[in-house]
Amino acid sequence: MLLKNHPRTIPYHHTTMTYTTMSVIKKRSGLTSSAINSNNLATEANQREKVVAQSSKAIGEITRTHPTVYLIFVSLLLDLLAFTMILPLLPSMLEFYKKNDVGGLYGYLSESIRSFQELVGAPQRFNSVLFGGALGSMYSLLQFIVSPIAGGLSDIYGRKPVMIVCAVGIAASYGLWAYSHNFLLFVLARFVGGVSKGNISICMAVITDVSNHQNRGKAMALVGIAFSLGFIVGPMIGAIFSRFADKTTSHWFWLPAVFAMGLALLDVVFIVTCVKESLPREKRSKKIINTLSHAIDHISIPALFKFSAVQNLSKRDISSLRSLGLVYFVYLFIYSGLEFTVTFLMYHKFNYTSIDQAKMFLTTGVIMALLQGSVVRRLPQRLTQISAVCGLYLIIPAFIVVGIAETSQMLYLGMILFAISTAFVVTCMTTLTSKYGDFHQKGTVLGVFRSLGALARALGPIVASIAFWSIGSRITYIVGGILLLCPTLMMQRLKLS
């Protein structure tokens, strides 16, 4: 009796009834053990799918190119179309000033160099090469000085206002070009254009503002595509104007200059109406003196090569940056000089018309655009340095072939090699540089890097033009091609952190 009524003892029939009842409940509710497991698995699978979808969405957001980058692409393209229109026209324009500005600045400069010209035996017909090189170097030197200052001002007042001011100045320079009936006015037009050319630097700053480490390479490749398209279409437009122009008149270049001014004004309107400010007020610099002093660091040559404006980086990172900057400067110094004199080579050695030159620019531009849009833009980070090295190796035979070319076929071969190399080198080196520094330092790092490039482009054209003028194109291009082996080997031996 006592055992039967013990509270911890459960009769067998009670246990059986309990299990039976539970089974009935499960059957009635349809919840068998397999169904429960299936429901649990389905729930887990749905949760996993949601996590994967959210992760994919997050990765997509990180790697997707910001819409502002495409607006900058359009603005750059408009600017470059106007800028490159003059390339096939420049040799003819300088010949025009040679004949019609005898008593002006062109005649004065020709007389000033006559004794040295006779000493080295330089043909008088190459004076236009020398003066063209001086103009090209002046333009790039002004850009070298102005770009960091414009960038510093944009850190204080915002990107958009400074971009608008630069675009208006560029439009004004084309207006001066339209009325440059003498060489002095043309030099003044180029001076105004160089002073206003801070827009490229600010465009890069905008891209830095809206990009991250994962999508910056794609954004830089889009900039490369804009340059390639500019060098495809711009020279073609200039050549078409040149072909139908009556060059016996004193203002035969008026129409292309006005067209370039129209493109520049369209760029102004586009920036005002479409481009949004990428630097919020709360992120702008409050200390004007400090900001402008950093801008001066971009102009000081020793500070540039030391990357003095970049603070709080490890010794290894600073060492890598300095090595990259030196390679970039040496490469662009030689490259830009030979690149600038190509139009004069075509004009004087091959008797190319503006249309012939435009066809050459079309060929090289299409190749560069296709490569940058399909290959360079998709390069993984691990292949960036080796791609830059391969591009550097390719530029050596490119310029040697251009130098020894006696036929158009050989010239085209050299320029095609040149286009393939150009598509890779600058974009890859810029991408390599952009990985250094914290988020707030990217703009400074890339600013110093671009300033080194601008300095190289300021010195390269005048040195190459003097060589072309005094010793001829063949030796200039062969020696230049061989010298390009130096930055190539330097880049190959770099061990970047």
From TrEMBL:
<protein>
    <recommendedName>
        <fullName>Major facilitator superfamily (MFS) profile domain-containing protein</fullName>
    </recommendedName>
</protein>
<feature type="transmembrane region" description="Helical">
    <location>
        <begin position="325"/>
        <end position="348"/>
    </location>
</feature>
<keyword id="KW-1133">Transmembrane helix</keyword>
<dbReference type="Pfam" id="PF07690">
    <property type="entry name" value="MFS_1"/>
</dbReference>
<feature type="transmembrane region" description="Helical">
    <location>
        <begin position="129"/>
        <end position="150"/>
    </location>
</feature>
<feature type="transmembrane region" description="Helical">
    <location>
        <begin position="253"/>
        <end position="275"/>
    </location>
</feature>
<dbReference type="InterPro" id="IPR020846">
    <property type="entry name" value="MFS_dom"/>
</dbReference>
<feature type="transmembrane region" description="Helical">
    <location>
        <begin position="162"/>
        <end position="179"/>
    </location>
</feature>
<dbReference type="InterPro" id="IPR036259">
    <property type="entry name" value="MFS_trans_sf"/>
</dbReference>
<keyword id="KW-0472">Membrane</keyword>
<feature type="transmembrane region" description="Helical">
    <location>
        <begin position="219"/>
        <end position="241"/>
    </location>
</feature>
<feature type="transmembrane region" description="Helical">
    <location>
        <begin position="185"/>
        <end position="207"/>
    </location>
</feature>
<feature type="transmembrane region" description="Helical">
    <location>
        <begin position="69"/>
        <end position="90"/>
    </location>
</feature>
<keyword id="KW-0812">Transmembrane</keyword>
<feature type="transmembrane region" description="Helical">
    <location>
        <begin position="386"/>
        <end position="405"/>
    </location>
</feature>
<feature type="transmembrane region" description="Helical">
    <location>
        <begin position="411"/>
        <end position="432"/>
    </location>
</feature>
<dbReference type="InterPro" id="IPR005829">
    <property type="entry name" value="Sugar_transporter_CS"/>
</dbReference>
<dbReference type="GO" id="GO:0016020">
    <property type="term" value="C:membrane"/>
</dbReference>
<feature type="domain" description="Major facilitator superfamily (MFS) profile">
    <location>
        <begin position="68"/>
        <end position="497"/>
    </location>
</feature>
<keyword id="KW-0813">Transport</keyword>
<dbReference type="InterPro" id="IPR011701">
    <property type="entry name" value="MFS"/>
</dbReference>
